[in-house]
Design a protein that fits this description.
- The complex is a heterodimer.
- Chain A contains six helices and nine strands.
- Chain A is of the alpha/beta class.
- Chain A has one domain (3-212): Rossmann fold (3-Layer(aba) Sandwich), CATH 3.40.50.
- In chain A, the strands form two sheets. Chain A has a five-stranded parallel beta sheet with strand order 6-7-8-3-9, sandwiched between helices. Chain A has a four-stranded antiparallel beta sheet with strand order 2-1-4-5, with helices on one face.
- In chain A, strand 4 and strand 5 (69-70) form a beta hairpin.
- In chain A, helix 3 (102-110) packs parallel to helix 5 (143-155).
- The two termini of chain A are 23 Å apart.
- Chain B contains twelve helices and eleven strands.
- Chain B folds into two domains: 2-43 and 261-389, no CATH class; 98-221, no CATH class.
- By secondary structure, chain B is of the alpha+beta class.
- Chain B is elongated, with a radius of gyration of 32 Å.
- Classes of the chains: A alpha/beta, B alpha+beta.
- At the A-B interface, helix 2 and helix 3 of A face helix 1 and helix 10 of B.
Chain lengths: 213, 391
């Protein structure tokens, strides 16, 4: 499924001059299965890109197409299907439930599609070296640990696109690399694509496409 | 897990207060509706006239006795009373204008005979089965309703004659007789007592018998209406009383007292029921407000659940089911306490000499179901609105 951003201009960014190769005000196609880097400094609209692309914000002109459908025509049922089976997201503010344990946070997502067993979920945490946090409340974890939980949660569903909004901002190089490896494997396995927004670091990964703001 | 996420961090005290308020409202509602109905039913079937019906006549004064003031009712007077908003119906009580004697005609009892005064009233006012209250020429007997005073007199006569007194049931088995006459024309018709009354002083006969007597044995004297039946609206007996006073009418004290008492008690229960309905509404609103507060406290959780793929309908169902369960428990508990209260109140009424029917009224159960239905609807729409606000 291609995602097409057709002359998108978010209202808060309309008064700013954008470059010729900016995704704002131009036609951009996120081709199915591609690994894409969105590199920009703070305040240029990386989070706006994420929230607009996944239908959380509607204050924009232009159109966003999932395949041949404008997302403005999506019903509640359509969005639920998109968010459980087609597009997975790692939010910049993570959107975890701080009063629930790591296990409960993962179960709440995984139970929608039964993508993984508990053993598999634990193994993924182990891969990111936070398996000992299984029963701990998310609110008590460090930001880096919470980011890793949010990444595992985003993995726990089938998807065609994985959109990640600065997912490594609190991770050291080694942990970011581990996460990148896991995301790469899972994405390839599903023949899916991903978009990673960063503040300039490509985390040693070779992307197939780069977007600019 | 969703329950833990959405309902764990709530203000328990506020929930307890809302639940207690609803419980009191529900209990008062079902209790007041039940007893309101029981009070309305009380006395029904105890006599031949309905509980809001009285027989009235004009007060007899010296001028009335001297014939200066009319003691009968004109059609215009009856029509005016019928048009009063608190009056359900007014009908004349028709008396005989032909000579009739009533007596026993049974070998088991001594012969007894007396000039009789018979009356007939509109069958709609009578609480007797209509299949027994019919007569046509050639029938085996004329059904009559006997004034209890006449029955007592009959028993007194039997006692004075050295005979055994008879019970209600036995009197209804005795063969009696009407003797209708005009000049030399005489006709004997068998009759049988089918019921008793404290409310009417004359022997009551079916309308068809009265018409037969008037057609065949009347001396032609025009019929005068000296008594009328007034049926008042429920709980407005005070207005009927005022009207009687204003128009110089009178009725039996016992009928007035019963009507007055029922009117007072009925009004009192309506007031209590109104308060209960308000209490149920207020407590329902408190619960709904608590639901809104809970959803607003959980706005982040609700929003995030939907962002990670939980369907809004699933979350609406969670909130809806949680609150209808709570109200269900309140309704069942309220009904349980009502049953206990009913046992207590019925025994208090019984020891006070008021033996009301102890079965639970269907209307009170329907009122509970109705209150539950309204709350369920309100819960659903509140949950839907709250969840979609976060969508």
């Amino acid at each position: 499924m291609n995602i097409t951003l057709n002359q998108i201009m978010p209202e808060p960014l309309a008064s700013i001059n954008h470059g010729e190769n900016s995704i704002w005000g131009n036609k951009v196609v996120l081709e199915s299965g591609k690994r894409i880097l969105l590199n920009a400094s703070s305040g240029k609209g990386k989070t706006t890109f994420t929230t607009t692309t996944i239908g959380l914000r509607k204050d924009y002109s232009g159109s966003i197409m999932y395949g041949d459908r404008d997302i403005k025509s999506f019903s509640t049922d359509d969005w639920t299907d998109v968010r459980t089976r087609q597009v997975s997201v790692v939010f910049q503010d993570l959107q975890l439930f701080p009063k629930l344990s790591v296990a409960e946070n993962l179960r709440l997502k995984n139970s929608l599609t039964d993508t993984f067993t508990e053993v598999e979920l634990k193994r993924m945490l182990e891969q990111l070296e936070i398996d000992n946090k299984w029963d701990q409340e998310c609110g008590l974890l460090s930001m880096g640990q919470q980011q890793r939980v949010a990444i595992v949660r985003a993995m726990a569903q089938p998807y065609k696109w994985l959109i990640m909004d600065e997912p490594y901002s609190h991770l050291d190089i080694a942990n970011a690399e581990r996460c990148m490896n896991m995301i790469h494997e899972r994405t390839i396995e599903q023949n899916a694509g991903f978009v990673l927004t960063t503040l300039g670091d490509s985390h040693g990964y070779s992307f197939e496409q780069e977007l600019f703001l | 897990m969703l329950d833990k996420l959405l309902f764990k961090n709530q203000d328990r005290l506020q929930l307890i207060i809302a639940v207690f308020g609803s419980f009191l409202g529900v209990t008062f509602l079902v209790t007041s509706i039940h007893y309101l109905i029981k009070v309305q039913e009380f006395g029904e079937g105890a006599d031949i006239l309905g509980p809001n019906t009285i027989i009235v006549q004009k007060k007899v004064s010296n001028s009335g006795t001297l014939g200066i003031k009319a003691t009968d009712f004109s059609e215009l007077e009856i029509e005016k009373m019928r048009n009063m908003p608190f009056v359900e119906d007014v009908q004349p009580v028709v008396s005989n204008n032909f000579k009739v004697m009533f007596g026993t005609k049974d070998p088991l009892v001594p012969p007894f005979s007396t000039d009789a005064f018979v009356q007939t009233i509109d069958p709609n006012f009578l609480d007797v089965k209509t299949d027994k209250w019919n007569w046509k020429k050639g029938d085996e007997f004329v059904p009559v309703i006997m004034p209890r005073d006449l029955f007592v007199m009959l028993n007194t006569f039997m006692s004075a004659s050295g005979m055994t007194q008879v019970s209600d049931d036995l009197v209804m088995q005795i063969n009696c007789e009407f003797k209708l006459s005009y000049g030399r024309k005489v006709e004997h018709l068998n009759c049988r007592v089918v019921g008793f009354t404290n409310q009417v002083s004359a022997i009551l006969v079916p309308q068809s018998f009265m018409e037969y007597g008037m057609e065949n044995f009347s001396d032609g004297t025009p019929q005068k209406i000296t008594q009328i039946l007034i049926s008042g609206q429920k709980n407005e007996f005070g207005l009927v009383e005022d009207m009687l006073e204003e128009r110089g009418l009178e009725s039996r004290d016992s009928q007035m007292v019963v009507g007055r008492l029922k009117s007072i008690v009925g009004t009192l229960f309506i007031v209590i029921m109104s308060i209960s309905i308000i209490a149920v509404l207020v407590s329902g609103l408190v619960l709904i407000q608590f639901m809104q507060l809970l959803m607003s406290k959980n706005a982040y959780e609700v929003r995030t659940l939907m962002r990670i793929g939980h369907h809004p309908k699933k979350i609406i169902r969670k909130f809806f089911l949680y609150f209808v369960r709570i109200f269900g428990i309140i309704t069942i508990a309220g009904f349980g306490v009502f049953v206990l209260l009913k046992i207590l109140l019925d025994s208090v009424f019984a020891s006070g000499g008021v033996n009301i029917d102890t079965s639970i009224t269907i209307t009170s159960i329907l009122a509970l179901i109705f209150a539950y239905g309204i709350f369920a609807l309100a819960s659903y729409f509140t949950a839907k609105k709250g969840i979609f606000n976060e969508y």
